[in-house]
UniProtKB/TrEMBL annotation:
<feature type="transmembrane region" description="Helical">
    <location>
        <begin position="193"/>
        <end position="215"/>
    </location>
</feature>
<feature type="transmembrane region" description="Helical">
    <location>
        <begin position="304"/>
        <end position="324"/>
    </location>
</feature>
<feature type="transmembrane region" description="Helical">
    <location>
        <begin position="92"/>
        <end position="109"/>
    </location>
</feature>
<dbReference type="InterPro" id="IPR045069">
    <property type="entry name" value="MATE_euk"/>
</dbReference>
<dbReference type="InterPro" id="IPR002528">
    <property type="entry name" value="MATE_fam"/>
</dbReference>
<keyword id="KW-1133">Transmembrane helix</keyword>
<feature type="transmembrane region" description="Helical">
    <location>
        <begin position="344"/>
        <end position="367"/>
    </location>
</feature>
<feature type="transmembrane region" description="Helical">
    <location>
        <begin position="130"/>
        <end position="150"/>
    </location>
</feature>
<keyword id="KW-0812">Transmembrane</keyword>
<feature type="transmembrane region" description="Helical">
    <location>
        <begin position="47"/>
        <end position="72"/>
    </location>
</feature>
<feature type="transmembrane region" description="Helical">
    <location>
        <begin position="418"/>
        <end position="439"/>
    </location>
</feature>
<comment type="similarity">
    <text>Belongs to the multi antimicrobial extrusion (MATE) (TC 2.A.66.1) family.</text>
</comment>
<feature type="transmembrane region" description="Helical">
    <location>
        <begin position="448"/>
        <end position="468"/>
    </location>
</feature>
<keyword id="KW-0472">Membrane</keyword>
<dbReference type="Pfam" id="PF01554">
    <property type="entry name" value="MatE"/>
</dbReference>
<protein>
    <recommendedName>
        <fullName>Protein DETOXIFICATION</fullName>
    </recommendedName>
</protein>
<feature type="transmembrane region" description="Helical">
    <location>
        <begin position="265"/>
        <end position="292"/>
    </location>
</feature>
Amino acid sequence: MHPISMADYDEKVEQLLPVYDDDDDDIGPINGINDFAKEFFIESKKLWYLAFPAIFTSFCQYGLITITQVFAGRLGTTQLATVAVQNSIISGFPYGIMFGLSSALETYCGQAYGANQFKMLGTYMQKSWVILYAMAITAVPLFIFATPVLKFLGQTPSISTEAGKLAIWMIPQQFAYASILPSSKFLQAQSKVAVIAVIAAVALCFHAFFSWFLVLNLGWGLVGAALVLDGSWWFIAIAQFLYIISGACGETWSGFSWKAFQNLWGFLKISVASAVMMSLEVWYVMALTLFAGYLDDAEISIDAFSICINILGWACMVAIGLNVASSVRVSNELGSGHPRKARLSVLVIGMSSLLIGLFFTLILIVTRKRYPAIFTNSSEVQQIVEELTPLLGISMVFTNVQYALSGVAIGAGWQTPVAYMSTVCYFIFGIPSGVLMAYKFKMGVQGIWYGMVIGLCLQTCLLLWMIWNTNWNKESYAAEERLGQWRCETHTEETS
């Protein structure tokens, strides 16, 4: 068999386009602004039906980390810096990989669910569990030897020692992540986002109470904070698992199967491409936090930087919810053979994320003299955070749009090209620019943050260019071919 040429591929796709154009379930011809407004409103309802619970979930889960940081800040600047370094560097490195590995399920499960291949979802989730638990085991030495690792990376001895002690207590959290991430993607692909939100809300309430009780009331300090954080994540993991096996997911869960270990290498290759794409964003922040620790007055610099990152993360919880909604909508519609609906979803999600980013930036600018006091009692840290606020606002706009567009890329299965783009934007332009401005031009933390803005801006612009030039009919055909390949692999495994 001769390989198909690009010209033959394009011709084959064009022959299929009338099939998509005549599909009654796709969007009909749009004549005028009234038709467009009607379709825009319909798609907006579908997106926000998914996005609202996903946003709420993101706020609750991010709130677990934020509450821990708030209580750590009440213990002192060293404790706050310890939590920031441990969370962003030691825990952040393996989490970034696992988050990326699990994002392959958004393509696999989303497109399979759209094509009514329900039984494939449970198998894919179990494959992802196997891969992520193996990753969690591999990461254990990093936590055990966190102190020498941080010292090698140039962190101060006091922060490295305390972060190393804290890291030992945070090992169980990584295994909770390995369970939560695949099960969340599995449920999201079926639009079962409300149950995830309810579980996250209950976990947040327990986390807030027990953080106060153990950290401040009983005086257990950072050890108490770590125990509560571990327990909160494991509560989420167990609750989601019990919901899945309860029968509420219908045909998508039919029990454990040895198929999870079959063709694992093929699944791993796709997962690795997803991991590179998503991990680079987490590692980008991790690297910038690391360089902030090399500045003069390292504790103050890290505290200010971590507070701004925390605020940025809170604002981006909306974008993460939109990221989930866009990946589900795009993957479902491409799997169903509805390219125009997928394209309209992209337009709605892009406009929504831009407006939300601008709204949060306005709030930030108005409250710039007050919000730093929520996180720290140090006047020096508060002053630096206030000076960083304009850059933080710009970052909010770009990050919101970038996260939303990344959801489109995941839903369409573009992980590999986007991974290359992220590498160039973040590590060829972003980090070197930040380091140059921070150290060469003596701009300190502001210089590092300028580097972040440069990387985010480039990544957002390239994603916009990529989406603008996309032929969604071809993407729908590619999804059909991808599902056909998966079905063939599954059939081969069953008959072998």
